[in-house]
Amino acid sequence: MSILEYNGAAIIGMAGKNCVGIACDTRLGIQGQTVAMDFRKVFKMSDRAFVGHAGLATDVQTMDHLLRFRKNLYELREERSMTPRVLSNLLSTLLYEKRFGPYFIEPVVVGLEDDGKPFLSAMDLIGCPVYADDFVVSGTATGNLYGMCESLYRKDMGPDELFETLAQALLASVDRDALSGWGGVVHIITEDGVISRELKGRQD
């Protein structure tokens, strides 16, 4: 088993019309054993940017603290807020710095740019980024997530439809992955603010 599959995760980022969403499951496990059902994998970096980390739970928390520190340092020096694209580049650099002893995480960055357009990126454990206009996925349920997202995704969805699509894709996917699930959280980022909702999933 890969170390990336040790704790389990399922994360989706998806674009809508002037909005973007990110969803994750809440299970923390040690392979087949469930340890907690409220583990945070998606973190709010600003009102317009969220980061999700799939992978080894200890590295998830370490990278959250490190990224938050570097983001705050940037904003103090530059006297402006960090855009999602710059945040993605910073995260990619932090991962590549440690490529010979990497953090075992595969992050997803979503947000709204200054012009209101959605931004989506995902990367591997050494920070090689991929950018998308529709959706990105990460975690142990990626095969299931890709299938569900390709089936349910439509262009220019509004915030409510985007939430419904993310929720259905996440819940249907984690039902077929033994290492993720036990509920979920969906965050929708719009020009007016962030809407966060919790999902109840199967408990088996």
TrEMBL record:
<dbReference type="InterPro" id="IPR001353">
    <property type="entry name" value="Proteasome_sua/b"/>
</dbReference>
<dbReference type="GO" id="GO:0005634">
    <property type="term" value="C:nucleus"/>
</dbReference>
<dbReference type="GO" id="GO:0043161">
    <property type="term" value="P:proteasome-mediated ubiquitin-dependent protein catabolic process"/>
</dbReference>
<dbReference type="GO" id="GO:0005737">
    <property type="term" value="C:cytoplasm"/>
</dbReference>
<dbReference type="InterPro" id="IPR023333">
    <property type="entry name" value="Proteasome_suB-type"/>
</dbReference>
<dbReference type="Pfam" id="PF00227">
    <property type="entry name" value="Proteasome"/>
</dbReference>
<keyword id="KW-0647">Proteasome</keyword>
<dbReference type="GO" id="GO:0019774">
    <property type="term" value="C:proteasome core complex, beta-subunit complex"/>
</dbReference>
<keyword id="KW-0539">Nucleus</keyword>
<protein>
    <recommendedName>
        <fullName>Proteasome subunit beta</fullName>
    </recommendedName>
</protein>
<dbReference type="InterPro" id="IPR029055">
    <property type="entry name" value="Ntn_hydrolases_N"/>
</dbReference>
<keyword id="KW-0963">Cytoplasm</keyword>
<dbReference type="InterPro" id="IPR033811">
    <property type="entry name" value="Proteasome_beta_3"/>
</dbReference>
